[in-house]
Amino acid sequence: MRLEKAMKGWGADDKVLIRILGGLDHASKPSMLQVADAYQRKYTRTLKDALRANIKGNFLKAATAWISALEDPAQHLEVKTNVDVDTCTDLDALLDDLLVEHNSVECMMADVDAQEIYNCCHGWGTSDGKLIALLCSRSKPHLQKVAAAYYEQRDKPLLKRLRSETTGWYRLFMTYLVESPEDADVRALDSAMDGLGADAVAIIEFLVGRSQARVRAAKARWEGKHDKPLVDRLRSELHGSNRTLALELLKGERNETAPVNEKLAKEQADELHKGVSRWGSTDDEKFISILAKNSPNQNAALRSAYEKKYNRSLESQIAKVGQKNLKKCLQALLLPPADYYAMRIRKAFVGLGTSDKVVCRVLGGSDKCDALAIAAAYQRKYTTVLKDGIKKECSGNYKRLAQAWVTLPDALEDPEAPIDVIADTQSEPDGDGVVDDPDPPTPPASPKAPSPPPPPPVPVPQPTAVAAPVQQCAIYEHQDSRGVWTAYDNATASILEAAVRSNPNAVVRLPGIPFEVRFGAAARSARIQQPPPTGALQVNIHNENSRVVRRRPAGSVAPPPAPPAYQQPQQYQAPPPPVPQRPVQMAMPAGTFPVLVPAGHGPGMQLMVRAPNTGQMMTVIIPQGVGPGGQFAVPLPQPPRVQYGAPQQNWRTAMY
């Protein structure tokens, strides 16, 4: 009652609240739990909700944290649930109590995980090893509770904080991982449909591999986000049989749990065989209507029945379908979802480079149990471990995150299972060019009580807060566009010196400005592929513009100017790729004008040019033997003739 009176009227009586709440704990009489329970019984709302409605700021955070620390995670239900099932008389009440107890303990674990994520991201740098081990040993439903707990603790979205701490493919994979399944699917659909043309394979990949419930949830979330029907967007993005298949799968009418009907499988096999004519043409509508409505198990039975009766695979008949993408989609319907996604990952690893977007979308968008099933299917199909394929094709923290997601078990389901994350390789740059920070590889298998954040490892002196000059043991300088070396201030030099002593391959974010100083093996960027002789590089994190950084002892005389290779303008450009064809320079005959072939164009391609005499736009074709950087002659068009005294006609000039 005294708490309620302190919160009534114009503003709350903070002194009374502090005196009452601060004087209660688990051992006081009455205890904090007893007071909170009595308040909820009397005023039909929790004490936390009442405090949130009347106070704010750090006082609110401290008050709710104090109440949470003294709460019983199981809500006093252990006495009711710790009974013998055989002797229990009210099993329905026992089941209700078990569900409430389970949810309460999960919420407590989510609070602990949210605090641990904050500890990993707070301070100087990010503890990527601890962060990866925590996120990859949780399921997506639990991560949604962690995100809600983080927002309640910090008033900031968890995903926004994680994206600010990561870059490159590491950021994209973590985004798909932390997002809810429907949000991850909406992101994948937007990525497939935005821009010029639609990625039909990515759209069908979502519709084929995801469960019907997940497809319906993603459809509702997409329509709520864009305020338009998804079916209309798919109709505008896809065409032909691809559109028919996508719209059929979007209905979500497949019965995934229906038993296999062998008789129906034989009848469908006959129908599909009749759908292929003797000349090889196929009835696409019949294939779509049967395969898109069957469950994965029914399609497997259909595949087996067709092969037994006609002594050929059903895939060979599907291969006769006209559209290439439709062939892939229909063949995917014959596979279990885990096998199909394993095939997609395998194809992402084949060829020149890795399709990292497919890896992030497929693995990061899958739940924990689905990711483990994909890894098992990959090993069964290709007799190699998916973890080894990721190790070969990916790098840095992106590699560590992907490997952990497909190997680590769910720690909440199996708390005794070991949680091992691959050790960080300091000399190996990440997929975004940033060398990973060394982290302890093995965090606890189950959540522990939150600990206060550790003090920052390196004290950062502020130049405006000291009266005397900071003692330095080294001077750090960067080279500008004129070749002049400019020294960093004492505080920044101290930070750089401390970082490079603790890690020769350190990456240091300069405070207050969007620049990083990269040392050792990490001293590279998109503009400079190899570390400079000085072993350090300053990089703009937005556009990768780079400057060379050097170190010299304090009090020493500056060395002579650097070699000419590093005396040039500050923006070091990587050497241009070799020109595939030698440019052909021609003498321009009379009555023509020269046209320069831009990069990325070659013989047989068309260019739009403007005639210098008439200003008219012309379409010309690049002749054979002329590559990028070369020139060729184009005849000047004749200006239109105008007859005076007669209506002017619209003359057309021939295009060369």
UniProtKB/TrEMBL annotation:
Residues 423-464, 552-581 are annotated as: Disordered. InterPro entries: Annexin, Annexin_repeat, Annexin_repeat_CS, Annexin_sf. Keywords: Annexin, Calcium, Calcium/phospholipid-binding, Repeat. SMART domains: ANX. Residues 427-439 have a biased composition (Acidic residues). SUPFAM superfamilies: Annexin. Pfam families: Annexin. The keyword NAD does not apply. GO terms for molecular function: calcium ion binding; calcium-dependent phospholipid binding; phosphatidylserine binding. One of its GO terms (cellular component) is plasma membrane. Residues 440-462 have a biased composition (Pro residues). A pair of annexin repeats may form one binding site for calcium and phospholipid. Belongs to the annexin family. This is Annexin.
